[in-house]
Amino acid sequence: MKHQTAGIHHITAFVRNAQDNVDFYAGVLGLRLVKKTINFDEPEVYHLYFGNEIGSPGTAITFFPWQHGRKGRVGGGQVGYTTFLVPSGALSFWENRLTKLNVPFQHHHRFGETFLRFEDTDGLQLEIVAREEGVLSKWSFGGVPADMAIKGFGGALLYSIAPEKTIRVLEDVLGLERQGEEDGVIRFRSAGDLGNIIDLAANPVPSGSGGTGTVHHIAWRAKDHEDHQRWRENVRAHGLSPTPIVDRQYFNAIYFREGGGILFEIATDPPGFELDEPFDALGQELKLPEWFEPHRALIEKGLSPIEVRVLKEDME
């Protein structure tokens, strides 16, 4: 039986200013900042996680804010658009909200669905789609009530420098099922109900360059640590080169670059973001893994203060 992922676990991108990032994803989009930590490989940089009320797998978008980072260019070997999912009937709410907050957007259509396309403060390409599937978020913030809130990921539109190689990984390694092709886009579906619709540009896209406003990697779900080990073996069996298993505190991870140039991660669903903070306090304190605790004072001194705040437009 083919090994199948439930879908996207998280997506991680580069941005520039940490407070601008919080204002956009919490303030504009109404997501919860569920974890404030650091890039374990570059501890002078925040790693911020936003998602539903607990940052469930399939809902978490994460960021490395590099204040002096170079501007990236979206292109082949990257996630082209990150797709957020809202409840059926909520698209008009989001049209009105983006208009109110002066976030320019366009309507885009593919596979019979309407998407609202827009960019964040750093030019990261985003879109919103409404569907019935997916558990409703229980989080409300600012001007976003829970019944209109982003549920999590609808999926992503991938740009590949070698689409046939990417297709082989999506189908043969990750177990996604091809749904059809339309207007130069191939659609795949995973086994879950969040982060489950993956679209791929059918033609090669010229290589992008990493930097602010681009996605660093897209992560896929493994059910548990035992399943994660099977995923690593599965990736190797298909001639790819996964990293050793890496402890990311809130999940374990392996990474590999598929033939179309996109950096893929496979991450475990457990233990999750309540590992070191209770539900009511998620995202409020800077959390460090134990090996960085002796350096807390130095790390905190180098990080700019951030706060989750309601936008002034939502207080009027």
Question: Would you kindly provide a written description of the structure presented here, covering whatever features stand out?
Answer:
This protein is of the alpha+beta class. It has a single domain (8-314), classed as Roll (2,3-Dihydroxybiphenyl 1,2-Dioxygenase, domain 1), CATH 3.10.180. 16% of the residues lie in helices and 34% in strands. The chain is built from 5 helices and 16 strands. It has an 8-stranded mixed β-sheet with strand order 2-3-4-1-13-16-15-14. The termini are far apart. This is Ring-cleaving dioxygenase. It comes from Marinicrinis lubricantis. Keywords: Dioxygenase, Oxidoreductase.
Quick rundown:
This is Ring-cleaving dioxygenase. This protein is α+β, with helices and mostly antiparallel strands and 316 residues long.
Quickly list its features.
alpha+beta; 2,3-Dihydroxybiphenyl 1,2-Dioxygenase, domain 1; 8-stranded mixed sheet; 16 strands; Ring-cleaving dioxygenase; Extradiol_RC_dioxygenase; Glyas_Bleomycin-R_OHBP_Dase
Order of H and E elements: EHEEEEHEEEEHEEEEHEEEH
In oligomeric terms, what are we looking at?
single chain
* CATH level-four homologous superfamily name: 2,3-Dihydroxybiphenyl 1,2-Dioxygenase, domain 1
Distance N to C terminus: 56 Å
Domain module tally:
1
Q: Report low-confidence residues grouped into runs of 5 or more.
A: none
GO molecular function, one term: dioxygenase activity
Organism: Marinicrinis lubricantis
Protein name: Ring-cleaving dioxygenase
Keywords: Dioxygenase, Oxidoreductase
